[in-house]
Amino acid sequence: MPTALITGGTSGIGRATAALLHRRGYEVIVTGQNPVTIATAEKELPEGVVVVRADARSLPDADRVAEEIRRRFGALDAVFLNAGIVRSQPMEAFDEATFDDLFDVNVKGQFFTLQKVLPLLNEGGSIIFNVGVGATRGLPNGSVSVAAKGALLSLVPSLALELAPRRIRVNAISPGPIATGIWAKQGFPQDALDEIARAIPLGRLGTSEEVAEVVAFLAAAGFVTGENIVVGGGVGLSA
């Protein structure tokens, strides 16, 4: 039975991916740090999905997650590096603490989690980074957030080459506007979301389940590596 780790897997895209991979026969372990989303995930995810509390910024927590995987499963076949945070504000409003927090969670945490679990990844395994479309197409008031995510995107081709001798594939997904709880956290009113949806060629926001389908594809796509797949309903295309 294949095994998968999903960081930031207790809500939104991560939780949807955990549920989908479980339905497709994976043993799944997810991480999160918010007590509310952890409790919800434990209640709503299928029985057998392992939920572990881990702070993406903490290297000791990354060690603990790797040991949990080793103890429970022995090895991994897929790693979805999905944990991340966003801060929407003008460049001049960022302070050092916020800048550091964004890079600690979005870059440092994901890099070192991967480093810790890489010895457990089977030959022919799959690594998928969740980057976001803003890293390549811009996001107003999102300069530091998308810079951090863009750092992940820059890792993809180099890691794809480095890990190719083990037949481990490294790819990224870049979701566009997806209907998750992050919009409410950022204070977006419904009329603003409606305007965003109207600007998308397919005329709506995407769903977490639709992004999860692309993650599942990359987990199994044996001849795809070094790529970034945009999941955005045509966002950014000319009319």
What does it look like?
There is one protein chain. With 239 residues, the protein is an alpha/beta fold. The protein has one domain: 3-Layer(aba) Sandwich (Rossmann fold), CATH 3.40.50.720. The protein is 46% helix and 18% strand. A 7-stranded parallel β-sheet has the order 3-2-1-4-5-6-7, with helices on both faces. Helix 1 packs across helix 9 and helix 3 packs parallel to helix 4. The longest helix has 22 residues. The chain is globular, with a radius of gyration of 17 Å.
Binned strand content: 15-25%
CATH H-level superfamily title: NAD(P)-binding Rossmann-like Domain
How many helices does DSSP assign? 9
Low-confidence stretches: none
Structural class per helix/strand content? Answer: alpha/beta
Oligomer: single chain
Nearest-integer average pLDDT: 92
Strand order of the largest sheet: 3-2-1-4-5-6-7
Give the termini separation.
45 Å
CATH class group: Alpha Beta
The largest β sheet comes out as: 7 strands, parallel
What name is given to the CATH topology? Rossmann fold
Q: What gross morphology would you assign?
A: globular
Radius of gyration: 17 Å
Structural domain count: 1
List the helices and strands in order. EHEHEHEHEHHEHHHE
The level of helicity is: 40-55%
List the helices and strands and how they pair.
Layout: E1 3-7, H1 12-23, E2 27-32, H2 35-44, E3 50-53, H3 59-72, E4 76-81, H4 96-117, E5 121-130, H5 134-137, H6 143-163, E6 169-175, H7 182-185, H8 190-199, H9 208-220, E7 228-231
Parallel strand pairs: 1-2, 1-4, 2-3, 4-5, 5-6, 6-7
Helix pairs in contact: 1-9, 3-4, 4-6
